[in-house]
Amino acid sequence: MKQFLFILLILFSVDLEGQDCAEIYLIRHAEKDRSDLKNKNPHLNKLGKDRALKWVEVFKNVEFDKIFSTNYNRTIETVTPISLDKKIEISIYSPSRIDYESFKSKTSGEKVLVVGHSNTIPFFVNGLIDKEVYQQIDDLNNANLYKVTICNDNITHSLLYIN
Fold first, then answer.
1. N vs C: which end of the chain shows fewer Cβ within 10 Å?
2. What DSSP assignment string belongs to 4-66?
3. Which residues, 6+ apart, have CB-to-CB distance to 89 below 8 Å?
4. pLDDT at residue number 20
5. Which of 115, 125, 141 has the alpha carbon at shortest distance from 31?
6. What CATH fold (topology level) applies to the domain 16-161?
7. 5 CB contacts (<8 Å, ≥6 apart)?
8. Burial level of 97, CB count in 10 A (0-12/13-18/19+)?
9. Which contacts qualify for 40-45: CB closer than 8 Å, 24 or more apart?
10. Whole-angstrom Cα distance, residue 49 to residue 154?
11. Comparing C-alpha atoms, which of 86, 151, 135 is closest to residue 113?
12. What does the alpha-carbon distance between residue 94 and residue 97 come to, in Å, rounded to a whole number?
């Protein structure tokens, strides 16, 4: 029995670093300026700028390989402090043009941050996990952090609320 437990312990303590596991973190942009409802490309407001700096702290121990953002003021302003801190250039992506299989292939073995919108990030996660699990984020919620881990055919996902 002791040998069996020892073998189980060894099997479950296998280091995944040697595998081509991807860790994909996904967030919505921080709080935007809502003073002009006609503005389709607003900047962050004060709370949003503060949250952008908070994300730097949240991710301080994550060594990203790539950072992706949509091409909007609010997403770029959300991720710029992280980009500067990590010294990683921001790559622009279009949510409507994502090929999830290609994205997973190109990010295999990497740690990636994706910044988008209330109506794109949950569906990006769904595309990565190939299941309809997450719904559109409430428009006043800028605190969701999704994490998708892909190791070979094993995909796990989680959602945290970071306020």
1. N
2. HHHHHHHHHT--GGGS--EEEEEEE--PBP-S-TT-SS--B-HHHHHHHHHHHHHTTT---SE
3. 67, 83
4. 84
5. 141
6. Rossmann fold (3.40.50)
7. none
8. exposed
9. 41/72, 41/73, 41/74, 42/73, 42/74, 43/73, 43/74, 43/77, 44/73, 44/74, 44/77, 44/78
10. 36
11. 86
12. 5
Contact call for residues 147 and 160 (beta carbons, < 8 A)? yes
Paired residues of 128 in beta bridges: none
pLDDT digits (tens, 9 = 90+) for 46-80: 999 999 999 999 999 999 999 999 999 999 999 99
95 and 117 in contact (C-beta within 8 Å)?
Answer: yes
pTM (two decimals)? 0.88
Sheet holding 66-69, edge to edge: 90-92, 66-69, 111-116, 22-28, 144-151, 154-161
pLDDT of residue 18: 52
Mean pLDDT of the chain: 91
